[in-house]
Structures are given as C-alpha cells and as structure tokens.
Write a structure and sequence with these properties.
The protein is an alpha/beta fold and 167 residues long. It is built from 4 helices and 8 strands; from the N terminus they run βαββββαβββαα. The strands form 2 sheets. It has a 4-stranded mixed beta sheet with strand order 1-4-3-2, with helices on one face. Strands 5-8-7-6 form a 4-stranded mixed beta sheet. Strand 6 and strand 7 form a beta hairpin. The longest helix is centred in the last third of the chain and has 14 residues. The protein is globular. The chain starts with 9 loop residues before the first strand and ends in a 7-residue tail after the last helix. The relative contact order is 0.14.
C-alpha cells in the first residue's frame, strides 16, 4: 500500500458558550467566522445545536458545536497538554507578537522549549481546548526522527507493553 496523502479538513470541538467562543476566536485569535448553522431538535440527538466554523487558513476550519444542555465533562486525569491543536506562525518575531497579544487580552499562557531555537506558546480557549503556537522555521529542525527510527521507537514501546506488534 502506498503512502496516502491526507490533509486535515477541519477539527471539531464542543462549545460551552457560543458568545465567548466567538469573541475568543475573532478578537484574540483574529480568525473569521466563515460558517454558522442552527439545527433543531430533530437533527441531532434530540437537541437543538449551533455549529460555528472559524477559518484557520488554506480552506481549513475549527468547528465548534454547542447544543442545548451541554455540560463540560469531568476531568479525566490526563495531563492538560496531552490533547492540543498546534499551529505554526511564520517566525520567532511573530511568536513574540502573539505573546503580547495574549497578554493584552488577559489570556494566560506558558512557554516550552522544544530543542534549540524552538519555543512553543500554550494557552486555552474558553472551552478548554489547548492551543499551541510554534515557529515555522523551527519545526523543520533536523532533530526530528526519521520515519524508520520512529517505527523502531513504536515497536520497542508496544513490545515492552505486550501490545499488538507493529510491522
């Protein structure tokens, strides 16, 4: 089987307050609302819902679904940064500008170093979706594992835990 080329079309998340979600993604993130749709109770699990879509570039979007009676899930005990959306900015200067913008909007963030000259900024949206911004030039670093090495790492991990073998 040849390698399939896949691209993300959209990512979908729950929204717990459509107004706060809209303000965050338009004012803080600077994204455009490009689609919104209301559905009635017959359409989806007997709940009226609102879908909002924000453009992230190249025709891709972040979708948020809010429905009547939606509640935040309980903490599942996983590390807070294990699930996140990473987006790239064009330079380290752009990353610094993002930090200033987040501060201006009173959005808490933290930074992490991921090797030499690669820094990421992490912050949450109003729905608890963790976002990461990182410098595009730094993501192409030669420290990234080759595909063959990556497969070996997964083989070792799965074998040591009695999981189904990786070919």
């Amino acid at each position: 089987m040849s390698s399939a080329k896949l691209q993300i079309d959209h990512l979908a998340f729950p929204s717990f307050d459509a107004g706060e979600t809209y303000r965050f993604y338009t004012e803080v993130m600077g994204l455009s609302l490009v689609f919104a749709m209301e559905g009635d109770a017959k359409a989806w699990k007997a709940k009226s819902f609102l879908l909002t879509s924000f453009a992230i570039g190249d025709g891709r979007v972040l979708d948020f679904f809010e429905y009547d009676g939606i509640k935040r899930p309980d903490d599942d005990g996983l590390p807070s940064d294990i699930r996140h959306v990473a987006m790239v900015v064009e330079s380290s200067d752009a990353l610094e500008a993002w930090k200033k913008k987040l501060e201006a909007h009173a959005v808490s963030y933290w930074t992490e170093e991921h090797g030499p000259k690669r820094q990421s900024v992490y912050f949450s949206d109003p729905n608890g979706v963790l976002l990461e911004l990182t410098d595009e030039a730094a993501t192409a670093s030669p420290e990234r594992a080759t595909a063959a090495r990556a497969v070996e790492v997964v083989r070792k991990w799965t074998a040591s835990r009695g999981q189904r073998a990786v070919r």
